[in-house]
Write a structure and sequence with these properties.
This protein has helices spanning about 10-15, 25-30, 50-65, 85-90, 125-135, 140-145, 185-190, 205-210, 225, 255-260, 260-295, 305-325, 335-345; strands spanning about 35-40, 70-75, 95-100, 150-155, 160-165, 180, 195-200, 215-220, 235-240, 250-255, 300. The chain has two domains: about 25-105 and about 145-155 and about 245-290, D-Maltodextrin-Binding Protein, domain 2; about 160-245 and about 290-345, Bacterial extracellular solute-binding protein, family 7 (D-Maltodextrin-Binding Protein, domain 2), CATH 3.40.190.170. The strands form two sheets. Strands 7-6-8-5-9-11 form a six-stranded mixed beta sheet, with helices on both faces. It contains 13 helices and eleven strands.
Amino acid sequence: MMRHIVSVTAIAAVLLGGSALGTGTVEAAERVEGPQLQWKVSVWGKRRAFTEGLETLSELVAEKTGGNWQIRIFYGEALSKARENLDGIKLGAFEMAIFCNFYHPGKNPAWMVYTLPFLPLGDPAASRAVRMELPEHPALKADLDRWNAMFYASTFLPQYEFLGRGEPPRELEDWSGLRVRAGGGIGKAMERLGAIPTSMPATEVYTSIERGTIDAASFPFTYAHIAYRIHEVADWYTANLSPGTTECPIVINKDAYAALPDAYKALLEEVKEAVVDRYFEVYTEADAKNLPILEARLEKIVYTDEQLERFREVAGKPVWEEWIAENEDKFDARGVVERILEIAERATGG
């Protein structure tokens, strides 16, 4: 039976043996000798949980090389528009970037698998394993090859959950007729449940729920809901629905990587676990702060394992099959989905 874990608060005990910056082999490593080098990283927005892994990478690389290798993060689309980061990587305009698959499905069709609903990624161990191993699949590698890019690490965006107003959807049937802000695979899943999905900018959700234009909205849990103050106009939240997520990986220009001395390549691998750990750590910290706020104000909806299995059967697997049928002549779409299931099953012990 697949375990369902909503909040990344539980991740710390499972995945973190200590502070990413203060324990383990990274701290014990001797100084890495090499040439003076500066890399640029293209990111949008400002520094936040989503970028803390990159900040950790920058700090560790500078520390371990005595300042010789500087990885400088450029925020606010200073180097490139968010939707054009893959183009910038291909041109060699910068050495590293984050991109989100849903910004441009045509540029990364195989990577769109992460947006499918009700994939078994609610368990933290499964999420970590899938997001770090699946990019080795030939279809996902081919997507990045077209942009002269290589995968480095995931940013591990949390599972989405819903906050809503009015009568809570305690059963599958209760979703029928609800107007929900949900796009991509989650939107398709909600449609199969009889809900009415709509797309709108995140900044409009608060007013839309307050005025009754929509009944519920999905965001990465918990930090995005709090950031947009949805809890102030909501009555309830789903705690373990885990309807889906997305993927926004950190990638490297292949030519820039090839030009690195071997010692610097080895350093990238050495610090990778600390980068990954930091992401889980900051999301855990966000949940520790945000969950009490939700629990104090809203009704918590927790679904049983039996109900969650019904969600997958009714609103998950049919959407998977549609996606496979739409893409099977372009790449091994079924193989990509099956690989996710294999990795997740292994990571959770079946």
